[in-house]
Every structure is written in structure tokens, then in C-alpha cells.
Amino acid sequence: MSSVRNVLSGIASLTQTMEDGRRQMVGLLLPSDFVGRPGRSAAAFDVTATTDLVMCCFRKKPFEEMMSATPHVAQRLLEMTLDELDAAREWMLLLGRKTAREKIASLISIIARRDAALHLRKRTGPLSVDLPLTREEMADYLGLTLETVSRQISALKKDGVITLEGNRHVLIPDIDRLLEEAGDDSDGGMLV
Amino acid sequence: MSSVRNVLSGIASLTQTMEDGRRQMVGLLLPSDFVGRPGRSAAAFDVTATTDLVMCCFRKKPFEEMMSATPHVAQRLLEMTLDELDAAREWMLLLGRKTAREKIASLISIIARRDAALHLRKRTGPLSVDLPLTREEMADYLGLTLETVSRQISALKKDGVITLEGNRHVLIPDIDRLLEEAGDDSDGGMLV
DNA sequence: CGAGTTTTTGAGCGCTCTCAATTAAAGTGG
DNA sequence: CCACTTTAATTGAGAGCGCTCAAAAACTCG
Hints:
The structure is a homodimer. By secondary structure, chain A is α+β, with helices and mostly antiparallel strands. Chain A has 6 helices and 9 strands. In chain A, strands 4-1-6 form a 3-stranded antiparallel β-sheet. The longest helix of chain A is centred in the middle third of the chain and has 27 residues. Chains A and B meet through strand 3 and helix 2 of A and strand 3 and helix 2 of B. The first copy, chain A, binds a DNA duplex through helix 5.
């Protein structure tokens, strides 16, 4: 970890593992996200690519020098880190207090929101989302077992909240309904 | 939230609440901790003092100007925020994967560690720690109910992992035993 | 098509929650 | 200083959600 990186394309996950193998995902690295710590050397978490991944790497020393030279870089980095901290805190609410069904609904709506923010495409017909994670990865994300993930997805499908096309593609007929299931404040985050 | 603050003394908590009242603590503000977001206006979380509190407040505009002027401030702030992010991620592992007993043991050892780092006093006899939180606040911290918190504390007491003096004061005869119960990697964080 | 992986589904159990009552501690006012 | 109220903490009994273990089904890819 002698370098700092920036994700250009693909998805990686930050995970933490206990001695007996229990695993918790603690971050999801998407294009434009930043990895590494200017100022510290050791990485406390495992970084795993879940898809093909292209990153832009800087060596640490020159990067730190650049940070000292141009204050805007440090400021921008601070802003990004604060955003990550906010995201981590929402995630903590999910992990600590939400039911399995709410966790699944939250995950799908989070992915839908990010997708919408990224593509900005007009939605014709129902919103559709690709899940970039396996069931097991979703389980690690949500603090569940993969069986529970699968069961809750099936339940949401049975109740008409979502429709499945294959295993990885989800159709959302009514986004408000999904957000309601997620237990978030209504119209959470101007997705509509 | 038109200002930025620094905790001087006392303890405050950052909490997030769902519509139906479920509550999760997402941050614990201790002396030297920083509150507020240079760059953003709305606070997404509730800040509550859990003890008498003294904070040092800056108005936002001058503070941001100072940040632009002196790069070291922004850099230091970035470092602190990255530390908070690391803490949040450890917390996520706790919330998502640890058992109730492990959560309690983790909380006590976290408080013990912070206390040791703060006071740097020689420990004569068993390590002793004051819990700055009520059972309910501990429950909100750990994603449990207050009944479960109470039960697990009683269980740890019964098993000799800790001793209670009153409700808020804990004696730790064997810190390694406690860390083992917490499920953390052995000798986690040079507390010994 | 067949071997491997991923996902779904089932049955039963256990940990934590819920609801409720009791005990302990901390203020309050006479 | 001691009843009395209020708040905090403990403990009990029972139920439910999510986990564990196990097997079947669906998808992937050579």
C-alpha cells in the first residue's frame, strides 16, 4: 500500500474479516472513488475486485507533495471523504436496525439511485437495475447470510415490489413502493 | 448548522432515527473530535449531548477561508476524517457480524482503549473504566435492545470477564480475556 | 450435454426481541 | 433524614426473525 488509487472502471469491495471467517463489507468502490490513505501506511481492510477493474495509481510521495502544493486537492479529497463518512453512517443504520427485508429493499434502491445519478437517462417504463454483486456479496454487504438474501428477494418478488429478469437484473415497477419497503424517509434522495 | 465545532469536554452522540423510532448511534463525539461539514450546509444526523458539553465554535465562512489559506489545516482535517472513517468501518463489522456478547465486550474494550490513550496513567491493579453511556445509549450504539445489553453485561459479570462497581463502573481483571470475548484479532491495538 | 458454480427452497433451531414485572438508584419535597 | 416519585437497570417468559444444515434447481461455460 505504497500508493494511492482512483477507480476508473469496474467495482471493488472493501471487506473486513474476523478470525473465524465472518466477513463484513465496509465499502463499495465505484468509478471515481478513491482508495488509500495519504499519511498512513497500513491498510486495515481487504480490497477485492468484484469485476474487472481499472485503477489510476499514484505513488504516495509525489501525491503527498502535490497535496501540500495545491490546497484545492486536499479540500476536494476532504469533501469526498466526508461523503464516504456520511454513506458509512447510513450504512450503520441499515446494519444495526433494519430488518432483512428492509436491508434488501435499501440495497436495491441504493444501487438504483447511483445508477440514475451516473446515467441520467430518461426512464421509459419501469426502472431497471443490474445488481453488480453475487448473493453472497450482497449478504456480506448487508450483514446477512446468502440464504436470507435469496429468501427476501423472492419475497419482494412475490409481493410485486420487484420483478426479476435472470438473477442479476431487477425491474422496479414502483420506486416509491420500494423506498417504503426500505424504511427510509419518504422520497429519500430525489431519485424520482 | 452554520458553524463548525470542536469538542473540548464532555460527550455527545451522533444518531440517526427512522420514522417509527428505531434509533442507531453513528458516532460518538469525544474531546478533540470535530463536528460539522466545511462545504455542506445540512446536517444529516442528530447531535445530542449525553453529558455536559463544552464546544469551541467557529463560524463557517471564516473557517473555510482559513482552510484555503493554510493547507496544513485541511490536511490535518482530512487525516482526522480518515480516522473517523476507519472507526466507522470497524463499527460496521461489529453491527453486521458480531453477537450480542461480542458487541458488549467490544464496547467495553473500545472505551478502555480510549481511556488509556487519553490518560496514559500507569495501571495499578485491574484496569477500571467508567461507562459514559446509559444502557439504552449502549443499545443504540450496538444495534441491540437495552434488555439484551443488560443481560449480556450480567453474563460477562457472571463469567468473571468483568466486575461491576455500581452501574457505570467496570473493572477488567484480564484485558486479554475481554479482547478474546470481543472477537477481535488478538492484542488488538496495543492496549497492553 | 455435463461439470461446476450460483441460487433457490425447505425444515428446525437459537439468539435476540417483545412484553411485563421487579429491583435498584437518583432526585424531590416535607 | 426519610417517604415518595421518577428514572434506570435487572430479570423472566414466550415468540419470531434470521441462521444453520441440507438438498434441489437454475444458471454458466467449456
